[in-house]
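G., the chain you wanted modeled:
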Amino acid sequence: MLRKRYLPTPRDPKMTLAEKRFKITYELTTRGMPKEFVREGAEIALEHIKIKRTTIAEAIEFVIRWIEIASEEDQTDSID
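Predicted structure as tokens:
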């Protein structure tokens, strides 16, 4: 029998790594994240949860802000 891998976070219920990845991917997709950024965003959110011990919602907000900042920098680079 396989053991489930848990990423314990302070305020989220116990979820397996696959369940967290699915929930993050679903949330990023429903919030209108471009398809090419969803997988990378999910991995960044999971790392943020591991390092900062945040909730899934906080990690998703972090990823959305991070990608918005990165896309703004790309736009200013293309203007120069």
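Residues 29-79 form one domain.

Shout if anything looks off.
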